[in-house]
Amino acid sequence: MLATTASGKETASSRRASTSAIHRPNWNVPRWPGRRIQTTSNGTAGINAAHGADRIYAGDLVTAEGTARAILRQAPAVVTLVAIGRSNGTIRADEDELCALYLRARLEGRQPDVAAVRTLLATIPPPPNPKLVAAGAYDLKDREIAAEVDAIAFAISVRREAGLLIAEPE
User: How many domains does the chain have?
Assistant: First the structure.
């Protein structure tokens, strides 16, 4: 899920963006022992396509509240929420769309039912390709972690620096 903000203008994004490297700092998160590493490939493509945005946030359900607070602090004229999906945005992903709806509700000042969100998330089937699981590309614990709605109080802002996308807690 990608959130961008702009000062009074819509930002353009392409669904056919190329990927580039994202620097991922080692964040120590007390809720989970060790480090939380957020990885993305489709998200990277979406972030890379967000040219012209004043701010970019890499969002998920875990950081939704922190992301909403960060966006509201900026009071932008325009907020664009993009549910990236899979295969560079060519295939819709239910969990991304659920996250975008949840974040929109938070931005509008509503308090969505977190238990209902977790229940809905649990009904979404995992990736249909068992080779992903076998290859270690999809850890079955990811679903549990993704269901920890609003568990982390910060947003993940993304900026460009020397040709790289840098993700940092905000």
Answer: 1
